[in-house]
Design goal:
The structure is a homodimer. Helices cover 44% and strands 14% of the residues of chain A. By secondary structure, the first copy, chain A, is an alpha/beta fold. Chain A has 3 domains: 7-59, 434 Repressor (Amino-terminal Domain) (Orthogonal Bundle), CATH 1.10.260; 64-184 and 322-347, 3-Layer(aba) Sandwich (Rossmann fold), CATH 3.40.50.2300; 186-319 and 353-359, Response regulator (Rossmann fold), CATH 3.40.50.2300. In chain A, α1 (7-14) packs across α2, α1 packs across α3 and α9 packs parallel to α10 (216-231). The radius of gyration of chain A is 26 Å and the shape is elongated. At the A-B interface, α4, α5, α6, β2 and α7 of A face α4, α6, β2 and α7 of B. The first copy, chain A, binds a DNA duplex through α2 and α4.
Chain lengths: 365, 365
DNA sequence: TCAGTGAATGAAAGCGCATTCACTTTAGGT
DNA sequence: ACCTAAAGTGAATGCGCTTTCATTCACTGA
């Protein structure tokens, strides 16, 4: 691991100028075959690898796309592991569960590969001032950011110099940012799922569990719920029946308890703003001897792997996170190749309701 | 997206030299608070983001670690999707299945984050000469490579200038490469699993299905199988009973057919070198009315998510791929911080046998 | 008041490559 | 053999930043 050889070394070794060495790599056809071979031989012998940094600096482009996401790793992973233990013996079940970020990464990686880009990924790690974004932004040709990872304002500054697409977050309404956005039809999905419960299963006493932290996703879902209820002539307040803090299984379990213990008639259906909570609720209900879906229907949102493994399998709304990753790359690439005008695009990806046992549709496993 | 502002712009705007601007970012304490504020204000106003390339060039380090893996994406994804359809209704099941690469990525990302590194990932894409490795190697401080992604020889050249760790591949025996290696105890796992079938289930007529393409992993597994058999006084030849081409479900299904149709006594257990094939075999056996595990036991290797979803659930050996990713980063970081001598390290991660229904241990889901 | 200190800042030299422009071969034509 | 166009090659410059090294300042103690 001595000092790495550079173009100068290769040039000297093969008796040409550094310009020629560079050409051998950038544009082989512009160098006579014989010369080229000589250079390549020298490079091989010296163990020369072109410096991406120098290259990027000189050519003003890196061939790398980026992805920034928030640091929601470890807590989630653990709560999923805890859940998996239910299965009976398999520890480390979290290994099998794909997080959002994994899906998006996969989508982006595939698409990036197709276009000849590599992918740089980084989670925020509650970093200081320049931390995350600077790290990524400074090293890529363009990048995607999961909503609420870094202040929109900051992104906007950056988007003046390179393409930035925001994932799963709506355009700022007050501010009207100029970023590209790719969202998921949260409201549509929750509306459709709610409609299903009401019309197809004849349920009318519904309870919605949302989140205290304000997330546009969760708000949109609740909005869809409200719309479906109103459309069916069911009264609903402007707020979810319950708001929890973290949207974890533990909170979901607690929420189910709270809802069941409330005075008045027991709800016929518990709608949760995500799968994690719904799974937690499933546990609570089982413990209390409340049958699902006979006594009460339960639904989630997201379509995580776990939703299919629990019993009864969870009815939910699947988000196309992988596709979102792919679309993000396509969009970035288009921007980089100069397509599109200056106008920011917003893209809304459709979701699909997955009907499974927990709402009474029992079939699929 | 006009020309991006540079240190020069910020320096001019704030009335200092570029050295000071640089210091504000690299070592804030060395600049008077008042000056620092002035610089940061200018930076904000201009939308300045330090160029990672220039930085890397000047400081000879990137703060990025890399991962290269082979391009086994799409074929696998599709075969898994096909399998998922068995479940009955959920399309897009491949979305829920984590590939090896996903696990490793996750492990590496977590560990890298802890150490303040970002992660650059790239799949080979059967690239030309410089393609993959050059792309990654030139942009990172060190990186991991999945075995058989690129010729060891090439890696070795690169490892002269930066840390390289090979994942899931043994050290070259003839050649004795100087790379760091992290492997999985394939032989141990298959030996233990085989022992389990023989001793705990009393099975003695076993059949092993390997792969035609020579992969050190698969060879090690077979070796473990042979060892366990010999230890139990069971005769086995030097070759698997069957070698298939691709280790896919389709091939596994075919293999089961072939094995069942062979003259002589039917085997009591079918051991496959990976889960994919074992799952395929499960389908064949069901179709033919052969009961698992009553008529014949079936085992896989890998512990993919699908192995738990099929019926009966597949007994297999779980590989700690995520942990492998983490260890890889730890190793790289240690190398970068100058720990370790020059001697290459080899690390062997333990695997665990997962006993499920398909071998007769029926319990867990 | 003045040399002596340490802190804050500036000047300048690269880091390794791409690229333009000018120059030298070589091939093609007569 | 001589000229022209095309193909190959080299010299030199700059990409945006980090990093000595030197310089300037504001103080300190004598």
């Amino acid at each position: 691991m001595s000092t790495a050889p550079t173009v100068y070394d290769v040039a000297e070794q093969s008796g040409v100028s550094i310009a020629t060495v560079s050409r051998v790599y950038r544009n082989p056809d512009s160098v006579r075959a014989q010369t080229r071979e000589r250079v390549l031989a020298a490079a091989r012998e010296l163990g020369y690898v072109p410096s991406g940094n120098a290259r990027g600096l000189a050519s003003r482009s890196t061939g790398v796309l980026g992805l920034c996401f928030p640091d929601y790793s470890d807590p989630d992973a653990e709560s999923e592991a805890e859940a998996g233990a239910t299965g009976g013996g398999d520890e480390a079940d979290d290994d099998a569960a794909m997080l959002y970020s994994d899906q998006i990464i996969r989508g982006m990686e595939r698409a990036a590969r197709r276009h000849g880009y590599a992918l740089l990924i980084a989670a925020s790690l509650k970093g200081g001032p320049e931390s995350l974004v600077a790290k990524v932004a400074g090293r890529v040709d363009g990048f995607a950011v999961l909503a609420r990872t870094v202040p929109t304002e900051e992104l906007e500054v950056i988007s003046r110099r390179q393409p930035v697409v925001m994932l799963a977050g709506p355009r700022e309404t007050d501010h009207l940012d100029h970023l590209d956005h790719i969202e998921v039809a949260n409201a549509d999905g929750q509306r459709e799922l709610t409609r299903h419960l009401i019309e197809d299963h004849g349920l009318r006493r519904l309870a919605y569990v949302g989140s205290a932290e304000e997330s546009p996703d969760v708000e949109a879902r609740f909005r869809g719920y409200v719309e479906a209820c109103r459309a069916a002539g069911i009264e609903v307040g402007p707020e979810p029946d319950l708001r929890v803090g973290m949207m974890t299984q533990a909170e979901g379990a607690r929420a189910a308890d709270a809802l069941l213990d409330r005075a008045g008639e027991r709800p016929e259906a518990l709608l949760f703003a995500n799968d994690q909570m719904a799974v937690g609720a499933l546990h609570t209900l089982e413990r209390r001897g409340v049958r699902v879906p006979d006594d009460v229907a339960v639904t989630g949102f997201d379509g995580i792997a776990l939703s299919r493994l629990v019993r009864p399998a969870l009815t939910t709304v699947r988000q196309p996170m992988r596709r979102m990753g792919e679309e993000a790359v396509e969009l970035l690439v288009r921007r980089l190749t100069g397509a599109h005008g200056g106008d920011p695009v917003s893209m809304m990806l459709p979701v699909s309701v997955v009907r499974r046992g927990s709402c009474g549709c029992g079939v699929a496993g």
